[in-house]
Structure formats: structure tokens, C-alpha cells
Design a protein that fits this description.
Length: about 625
């Protein structure tokens, strides 16, 4: 069954990360986050005591009605996040006199060289946007997903110190090891949230949008910046908006931002984008002339200027031909990739590294790209959480229906059809495994497990397929189909992979859990440094599914220290205590950065799973724990 609240965000189309290897000596958390908490006396509990754990969002990942956040202190007050440095309770122009107009009048020669925007700026004329008073939007509760639609409660950031909020968002590089961690973080960032007290709401929206861009969630980032009126933009939001529009190839959509915030930046790409907007407004000849001048300079590579010229010529209806040649280009960046796909150009494959989330997300979601390019990008994007299983199936359905497509992508779509349509369950299972086994790398293999999740869920539970149950269950849980996966409990081998995945990924009570079964899993674990076993113990402990004695036994045998404290663990535990789901999700995202699961620790997984469970996000906690066991 779908985890509706988890997947809702999918349908929308500090300095470095923390993650460290299990026994690696260096922490990758932002400075201070992995330090031991200050040895201060514990803060008194809030007036009404710690917030109690709200009910789960439904067993098996099914979502009950959205809950409202339970206050941890009496109404009308904002609880403080205690003595943890950086988290506090938070606290609650002059008129500009215009200079005399005649003193600012430019000469006739200067007027001839000016763009309309420069003319307005020279005269101090603010660009006006016809937004009726009734259509203007407040900057409170900025976001796309309301709590009634599966978003997180608007007050989920209450009590967070603004400086910590900035570190938490700007310090996340966007490379999340967990697909489900990525989905949860996107959901939190896209929710309609109030800014922490004392923080500019537009800055808060800009920091969230900037992180979405770094995650490869370019469509979600653009939607978020569009939820704020341009009149209310700040420098932080302006920069995030520019990046979001560039990476979606929407170089005319960004024009209101450029016009209103023209003086915000002075870099070459910002100026080139202004020239594109000038061409779109009817001043194409002057815009192309300025781009010609830029081409003769060295501020931007020639390919970047030529692409801007071609785009400006297209929107300005110029008849000038601009030839784009890639022979001398040795790298790709978001600016040139955004312009290329917007112009319908296909850069050479050697330049576009789809394992780079900057390009995989944009390519997988770009409607202007062909199905082949989007299919190749989806092989990376789905495993990261950018595409849902349903979106993958829809894409492959289009590929299968297109008679002009052949080669590996079409063959895979035909194999997927067999996984649904063949009569013999064993043959359908073989087709599913063929899709997995054809993947060139681990990331693509997991993306294809996302693709086959519903086909795996349709298989009848059969003891003859018991030896394949582990991977089939992993595929189902990759899409949140936990109730379908739970049906296999009666045929999985106790202590095997399928049992371990159900032990942490299925609703409580699905399988028996005891120290003997955990020990059996550990005995057969061939992962590096018994990483899967460490994640299993951490997940079970975080979910409260093993007792203290069993936890201590395996902490000792696996050399774990799940309870060790740092500033980051103190932050996330305190946020969970005060029932702040969005804050917990963002701190969890900060704690799941890295290039792969070998950079994840059992200790951080334990605190993430435990905190999510306590704020009512148990379904998400289970999926993250199961993914850790499957991919560890």
C-alpha cells in the first residue's frame, strides 16, 4: 500500500556533510554539530512536560488523517529548545527621500545605450507589477503542501534559533544517502511553514529553495520561490530563484525577478539573463549587441554566451543564426545545460554526467527532453527519491508506446510489461530480476527496484519464491508498499534478509524478533564491517522493537555506541521531544549526507529513526531503516 504522506512530495515532479564511515575518524557534520554537547545543567522541562508521541500515521504506511502539532507548553507561549547552543525560544525604514529628478537625467548618448531596465533604474523608477491588493500573498506559511495535503505542521519550526536554521539549511549539500531521507526532506522543505521567530520569511523560503536546488529538486524549488511575491524578495531568495529558473531552463520565467532585483548581483550570467529578458521585452537588437560584447570578453566561456545569444534571438524573434558547436567544450554546468535543453539541443553524452544530481533531476523532470534522455536520467533520479515508482512506470509506458524508440530502454520496457503480464509467477519474478541485474551500478539497480515495486507487489506469496523474497521485499519497500511486503512474512527465512527488512520496515508484530534471529542474521552478514547488521540493530532500537538487554548485547558485539551524544544528536532529540516534525526532518537530512551508505553510521541512523518515530513519522522511520538494511 502506498505511503501517501511520504510520496506526496514526489508528485510535485554546516560547511560540509556530516556522514562518516562506521569507524572513520573524521566527522563530516558542519563545525560544532558533532561535538559533545556543552556540560551545562539540563534545562527544566517545558511547563506541560515533553510532548507525548502522537499516533503513527497508520500501520503499514497507510496514512490516517493528518494530525495537528501538539503543543509542548501552554497555549500562547513558544517553548525553548533548552540549553542546546543555537536553539532558543526566539523573539517575537526609514523613509527614503527621492533626489531631484533633473540631477539624475542621463545624457542623450547615455540614453541611446540604455536598456529599458537601466533607464528606469537611472530615473529611480521602480518596476511596477499589477498585483491587485486582494491577490497579494503574505509571507507567512510559504510552501506548496498544506498539512491537510500531507505537509508538515506550519509551526514545526517554532523555537528554532534563526542562526541555527541558517546553518541547518545552508550547510546541507543536498547529497542524501537515503532515498526515503530525500523524500522526507523534500516534503519538509515544500511544506507550508512559518519561519522561525526572528528570521525573515523570504530568507527562510530562499534557504529552503536553495537546498531543493542542490538536491536536484528543481521543479519543487521553482514552485517554492513562486509562492512569494517578487516585491518581498530578499537577496537570499533572489539567488535561489535564479538558480531554480536556470536549472529548469525557464529563462523568461525569471524575468520579473531580474527586473525587480536588477541591482542585486553583478556577475556575467546574471547580466546575460538580463539581456535575454530585454530581448523578450522587445529590445532584441540592443540585447544581442551586449551579448556580442560579452563574447569578445573573457568573463564567460564562449559556449555560455553563444547559448544565451541563441535563446535571446529566439525569444526576441531575431533572424540571426547562432551556431552551437560542442567540440571544444570539455565540461557541463547548470547554466549551459539549462539553456541547451530549453533550446531543444542535446549536448554530447560525454559532457552530461547523470550520476551528478545537478543534471539527473533536471533531465528526469524536463518536459522538453525526449523520452530516451529522460529514461536514462530516471535510472539515477529514482534511486535518489526525485521520481516515484508511479512516475517511473508512467515514463516506461510512454517509452514502450513510442515506436521510434529501440535499444536498451525499449527492451527494458518490454521486460517490465512481462513482469506484469506473464501468467507464471516464476517467469514474472525472473523478468523483474532481469531488470535489476542489467543495471551497470548500484545506484541504477536501486532505481530499477523502485521501477519494479508494483510488479513485485502483484506476485502471489509462494514458498517456491522464498529464496528471492529478500530482494522482492526490498523492491516493494523502495516504493513504500509495506503491507504488500508484509504478506511475505509467512515464507521468509527467520534471520534472513527478507526477515530483517520486515523486522524494521513492516508494521510492528509482522515478524517475530528476538536476539537469536538477530544473531542468525549477523552470522550470515557478508556486508563490509557487518554494516547491514549494525543498521538492523540501530533500526530495531530506534523503533523500540528490541529491549535494552538485546540492544546492549549487539552494541557490544558490533562495537556500536548508539547512545553517544553530540550537538547534532542533542538538537534532533530535543526537537523530537518538543514535537517539531519539520525540524526533525531537516536535522535528519543534515545527518544523512554522503556519497553512499558506507558513509552512514549506525549511531546517526538510531537517532534519526528514534526522533522520527517520536514525532509521529514512524512510517518514514521504518522506510529509512529498511533501506539502510537493504543497501548497507
Amino acid at each position: 500500500m502506498k505511503l501517501r504522506w511520504l510520496i506526496s512530495g514526489v508528485l510535485l515532479a554546516t560547511a560540509s556533510g556530516w556522514a562518516l564511515a562506521q569507524r572513520a575518524p573524521e566527522s563530516l557534520l558542519p563545525p560544532g554539530f558533532d561535538d559533545p554537547p556543552p556540560a551545562a545543567a539540563p534545562a527544566p522541562a517545558p511547563a506541560s512536560g515533553p510532548a507525548s508521541s502522537p499516533p503513527s500515521r497508520g500501520s503499514g504506511g497507510s496514512a490516517s488523517a493528518p494530525r495537528s502539532s501538539s503543543p509542548a507548553v501552554p497555549a500562547g507561549t513558544s517553548p525553548s529548545l533548552g540549553t542546546i547552543d543555537g536553539i532558543t525560544g526566539g523573539g517575537g525604514a526609514g523613509a527614503a527621500v527621492a533626489p531631484e529628478l533633473l540631477k539624475r537625467l542621463p545624457t542623450l548618448e547615455e540614453l541611446a545605450k540604455m536598456t529599458p531596465e537601466e533607464f528606469e533604474e537611472a530615473l529611480g523608477l521602480e518596476p511596477k507589477f499589477d498585483i491587485p491588493a486582494g491577490a497579494r500573498r503574505a509571507t507567512e506559511k510559504v510552501g506548496m503542501i498544506d498539512v491537510t495535503e500531507g505537509g508538515l505542521p506550519a509551526d514545526s519550526m517554532a523555537g528554532l534559533n534563526p542562526s541555527l536554521a541558517r546553518k541547518m539549511l545552508s550547510g546541507n549539500r543536498g547529497q542524501i544517502v537515503s532515498r526515503w531521507g530525500h523524500i522526507l526532506l523534500r516534503r519538509a522543505l515544500a511544506s507550508r511553514l512559518d519561519a522561525p521567530e526572528g528570521m525573515n520569511a523570504a530568507d527562510f523560503a530562499g534557504l529552503r529553495a536553495g537546498l531543493l536546488v542542490r538536491m536536484g529538486e528543481v521543479e519543487a524549488a521553482r514552485a517554492l520561490v513562486q509562492d512569494v511575491d517578487v516585491d518581498n524578495y530578499t537577496a537570499i531568495l533572489t539567488n535561489a530563484a535564479f538558480d531554480a529558473y536556470v536549472r529548469t531552463g525557464d529563462f523568461t520565467g525569471v524575468c520579473p525577478v531580474l527586473i525587480k532585483r536588477r541591482a542585486s548581483r553583478e556577475d556575467p550570467r546574471w547580466e546575460a539573463a538580463n539581456d535575454i529578458c530585454s530581448a523578450a521585452r522587445g529590445d532584441g537588437r540592443a540585447a544581442l549587441s551586449r551579448l556580442d560584447k560579452a563574447l569578445r570578453g573573457d568573463a564567460m566561456p564562449d559556449i555560455d554566451v553563444l547559448l544565451a545569444q541563441r535563446y535571446a534571438g529566439a525569444v526576441g524573434q531575431s533572424r540571426r543564426a547562432v551556431t552551437i558547436e560542442w567540440d571544444e567544450v570539455d565540461s557541463m554546468n547548470p547554466w549551459r545545460y539549462g539553456l541547451a535543453i530549453a533550446l531543444g539541443l542535446r549536448p554530447p553524452e560525454k559532457l552530461v554526467n547523470l550520476s551528478d544530481r545537478r543534471f539527473a533531476g533536471a533531465a528526469a523532470l524536463a518536459p522538453m527532453l525526449g523520452l530516451v534522455d529522460r529514461g536514462n536520467a530516471a535510472d539515477h533520479a529514482a534511486g535518489r527519491g526525485i521520481l516515484s515508482s508511479a512516475a517511473m512506470i508512467d515514463l516506461y509506458s510512454q517509452i514502450h508506446a513510442d515506436q521510434d524508440i529501440d535499444g536498451p530502454l525499449y527492451d527494458r520496457s518490454e521486460t517490465l510489461r512481462k513482469a506484469y503480464m506473464l501468467v507464471d509467477p516464476a517467469a514474472r519474478s525472473a523478468a523483474i530480476q532481469e531488470i535489476w541485474n542489467g543495471a551497470p551500478g548500484e545506484e541504477q539497480r536501486y532505481s530499477r527496484q523502485v521501477l519494479t515495486a508494483y510488479a513485485a507487489a502483484r506476485l502471489p506469496v509462494n514458498s517456491s519464491l522464498a529464496d528471492q523474497s529478500g530482494d522482492l521485499i526490498a523492491s516493494m519497500l523502495a516504493a513504500g508498499l509495506d503491507r504488500n511486503a508484509a504478506r511475505w512474512a509467512k515464507v521468509v527465512d527467520g534471520g534472513g534478509l527478507g526477515w530483517a527488512l520486515l523486522a524494521v520496515g513492516a508494521p510492528a508484530g509482522t515478524v517475530e524478533i528476538d536476539s537469536g534471529l538477530v544473531d542468525s542474521f549477523l552470522s550470515d552478514d557478508e556486508s563490509a564491517e557487518s554494516r547491514k547488521s549494525a543498521f538492523l540493530v540501530a533500526g530495531l532500537a530506534g523503533l523500540g522493537r528490541i529491549d535494552a538487554e538485546t540492544r546492549a548485547e549487539f552494541e557490544d558485539s558490533l562495537e556500536l555506541d548508539l547512545g553517544r551524544k553530540s550537538r547534532w544528536t542533542s538538537y534532533i532529540d530535543r526537537a523530537a521531544q518538543l514535537d517539531r516534525p519539520a525540524m526533525v526532518a531537516m536535522l535528519a537530512g543534515l545527518g544523512m549526507q554522503g556519497s553512499g551508505w558506507d558513509r552512514m553510521t549506525a549511531r546517526h541512523l538510531f537517532h534519526i529513526v528514534s526522533a522520527l518515530r517520536r514525532v509521529g513519522l514512524e512510517a518514514e522511520a521504518r522506510m529509512i531503516a529498511a533501506e539502510a538494511v537493504a543497501r548497507g
